[in-house]
Amino acid sequence: MDMVIRYFQHNWDNLLVLIGQHIVMVAFGLLLALIVGIPLGILSAKNERAGKYILAIANLIQVFPSLALLAMLMVIFGIGFYSVVIALFLYSLLPIIRNTYVGLKEVDQSILEAGKGVGMTKFQILRKVQIPLSLSFIFSGIRLAAVIAIGVATLAPFIGGEGLGKEIYSGINLRDPVKIYSSAIITAILAILADYLLGKAEKKTRVE
Question: CA dihedral defined by 153, 157, 162, 165, rounded to 10 degrees?
Fold first, then answer.
């Protein structure tokens, strides 16, 4: 442990750069997943037939081996940042789609009927009733997606990406356990921090 602490002290500037790169990759991947995943979750809840296919495809992506997916994306998009972000986007989709779907389905039918009774359109009910009542479920999906993305992002160096995985990969090549442990510890801290902060946001949106 002392060696790890000394490593932090002597390499903090480089580690900060790697942390920043890691966060940027994860943030872009999650943002894309939110832009695509929430509408797909809404579509799945509104159209059961389409929902079966959407969830099945998202499940298939989730179980696809990380390195194999990264290799396929590298062939299509080249090495580096874009392939990594697309991989993180794909791995973040399932929790967001599924939790959006479940959240909308959990809204009490009587509340929806009340909305119709006061003359609200389907879109107004969705925007003003269903989505606000589903926010805690959606945040739960984002929380899980963030933790998954932080872990998957450590594989970025295998296709020319940056981030904390670069230090882990370097440690493996040099057979330097201190480099590996240091980056692994920071990655774990990032995942725990993301889980904690998004958990707090989830609690604030929870309807009692």
Answer: 60
* Nearest partner of 105 among 75, 77, 130, judged by Cα: 130
Model confidence at 146: pLDDT above 70: yes
Residue whose tokens read 């889980």: 195
Mind listing the pLDDT tens digit for each residue in 43-91? Answer: 999 898 999 999 999 999 888 888 888 888 988 888 889 999 999 999 9
Residue whose tokens read 């510890």: 185
Reported pTM? 0.90
* Residue 208 clears pLDDT 70, i.e. is over it: no
